[in-house]
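Now for one specimen:
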Amino acid sequence: MTRTEFCAGYPITPSSEIAEECSRRMPLIGGIYMQMEDELGSMAALIGAAWTGARSMTATSGPGFSLMMENIGYAAMTETPCVIVNIQRGGPSTGQPTMAAQGDMLQCRFGSHGDYSIIALCPSSVQEMFTLTAQAFNLADRYRVPVFLMADEIVGHMREKITVPDRVENVPRRELAKGVLPFYPEHDLVPGFATFGKGYGVHVTGLTHDERGYPCATNVRLHHNLVKRLVDKVENARHDVADYDIINPDAEQVFIAYGAPVRTVQQVLHDNPDKNVGFLRIRTVWPFPEFALAQFKNAQRFLVPELNFGQMAREIERYVNVPVVSIPKLGGDLHLPSELTAALGGWK
């Protein structure tokens, strides 16, 4: 098997096109697409493929994402690098299968039980679906962590021109050094990877384990140290993985957006170039780049348009001492420029 091509999936609107294209195209380049019986099996399969050395992924939407959560926690505990694409749709439950939403943003961060940390990227265009997918695989391998590509139905079904570079950066997974225990954190709290089939005898378990990988579920100190490392290896790297743009840092009113709503904010700024309006445009949503907020030193309020009832607005409120105005929109439609312009005009 090649190192970069494995996808296990189960069709679900509005992400089924990813499964269809992977099943058609991946065998043409020596990769494998595996149709699974459900989303639980999809997540299990990609974890197994990752341990053979393959770069592995799956794609789903809301209900399937919920079913994956137990094995996502297993991937976090076993430090399995993998990529999960979620083309978000309206929920809860079956909700709106063909309509856009951003209602899974807190779930991707906190959906599985216990304490752990992950990385989540949010594209707002077809070009970013391409570039951030490649970035997601590099981050997964670098930090040995599940990485989420949190798109939405609007971006997932969009048709746009993209630029495909001649070469895509490939950050290789660091192999386990000889004589080093398989879960010993050699560099930046991240262990080297002991690929199955390369002579390593490795015990991989979701139980609390020591640096050999052996279960030790009743040791209080060991569990504390292990889980703290799983969190710290991501949270300590928040500056390195951050990806955002700052526009008009001296503005008093500042939009913060990710995913499809970015496009509406961009239109508002284009149509109102003389207004004193700033914009924090986020691509890496988790870990949240709270340090970027400090660059808006004159901000009197932050406006957060989201296709949910204010999930990331709550996160922003933790870090600022000025009002955070949530601009929620549910039902599947994107915010109109007039709606965001009206929110600006309603100040003072």
Q: What stands out?
A: The longest strand covers residues 82-90.
